[in-house]
């Protein structure tokens, strides 16, 4: 039994009904600040009556209101649905069941205060709000919450209600009840009593005990006097375990000589991990006693943890979720955590023109190959695309280095009001694919999945393979040839090379490219509004060099790096001399020669891109190819009328 989805309406950021679909084990909520991740976590807490870190009830601010305060919600509605109920649970939660035998839990809060200034709330199970509600069923659902700014040391200190005391009491609850019924002591209570008796026999303790009692008798007389006894704490099991505290040793295998230290001497990150470990220990230790849902909510798991530990902790949480049937829901801004999480477990939150959209990535991609590819390739660099306002996917390091600067030059030349000055300012990420793998990542945004035709009985494998290849390269698909999927509601452009066979194509000519992914250019244009592919004449560096002023800068860099004198240097100097004298020159031939040197062993595309970026930064002067302008224009949605002059 697990929380499969939650519907939220009228609560904080959510004006209209929002539905969050959850997985049975690990769920990773990602997205920019202010897009509703914490709102969802608090909605789950509110629904499940979790209050370890006090929410201070419902306030007026919890009801949705627009920025201008002209719209507001008069009602908060939260509905949770639980799936995978065992036959035993179906009987236990019979008053919560819907027609499909799933458990439904609802809470409704009206914006009307009673005499104590509390907002009226109604909670019920099932579809009908007039059914009898059994609080015991709700209280049996274990839900633990760790806030973003958690004070782990405080929660672990020896005190009433400490996390350690709760763990020990819960683990011993059955034995404790049996002992209380039989009017017997717990073993630890016997041990403490025995210890107190031995303690009282010590000369210094006995002497102090005698002196205090004599003073009380002398001060108050025999009628009003009280008698004290020096003891080691309270002798009930509950008070004993509340006096216990956790100490730590920096290492894996302590010895008799090892020195344990207090938690205030530990780092914030490690104390957080100790706190998390006590919660998981409680879940694991009680899994035989409880079969109700066990839900762990963690905000910003990465708090105070360095990247390597973030990855290890995430993997451990995933293992624990599967092993001990715990549903774990975390929020994060860490690209490290996102890169380590399977795409099946990631839920994206995005702010759009029409409000917040929540997208489970597992609902975007149905193709198993695409899922596996993204799981392998979604590293800490590429995972930033899940936190962006838009993305430009590029083939290599050179494009990743230079395109942000080229976009900045292009945007500055538009001279439009309210125009972002850079891709970074607009929240747009340039993602290096290290190849032409953008078709997999675009499945997160394009919103459609192909329905491939089946192999006929008399059709050979070769013929069927060719049929599938032709099918997937179609420019447009009919309604029965694809299905709509969920998608992340941001724009994603890809910049790729044309790669024609012709060595030196001229600017303005149309040449057929050999890039095997070019078929997608027309397809995504016809099938989705969210994705576009932009290609050049030949390659990135070639198209840059087709402009005379660009070529001059590129040649100067090559000459500075050229290790020898000879025909290559003479040829390049000849180009510069021709530019200086304004002679006619075949620019496609220049571009071809420039690219040959960039690809040489002494230079390389990566180093050349760094040197060119340094040079452009000095003058802020470079001609941006049209296909790059088009990509920038697309992801920024630059249209007539959007930005005033």
Main sheet specs: 6 strands, mixed
Which class best fits the helix and strand makeup? Answer: alpha/beta
Number of strands: 19
Q: Figure out the total of helices.
A: 23
Please state the average pLDDT score.
Answer: 88
Approximate helicity band:
25-40%
Beginning-to-end CA distance, first to last residue: 58 Å
* Rg estimate, integer Å: 34 Å
* Shape label: elongated
**Strand residues, percent:** 15-25%
Largest sheet strand order = 7-10-11-3-12-13
Task: Give the uncertain stretches in residue-range form.
Answer: none
Features:
single chain, 645 residues, six-stranded mixed sheet, five-stranded antiparallel sheet, 16% strand
Q: How would you summarize this macromolecular structure in one to three sentences?
A:
By secondary structure, the protein is an alpha/beta fold.
Word description of this protein:
The chain has 645 residues and is of the alpha/beta class. It has a six-stranded mixed beta sheet with strand order 7-10-11-3-12-13, sandwiched between helices. A five-stranded antiparallel beta sheet has the order 2-1-4-5-6, covered by helices on one side. A four-stranded parallel beta sheet has the order 15-14-18-19. The longest helix is centred in the first third of the chain and has 22 residues, at 203-224. The protein is elongated and about 120 Å long.
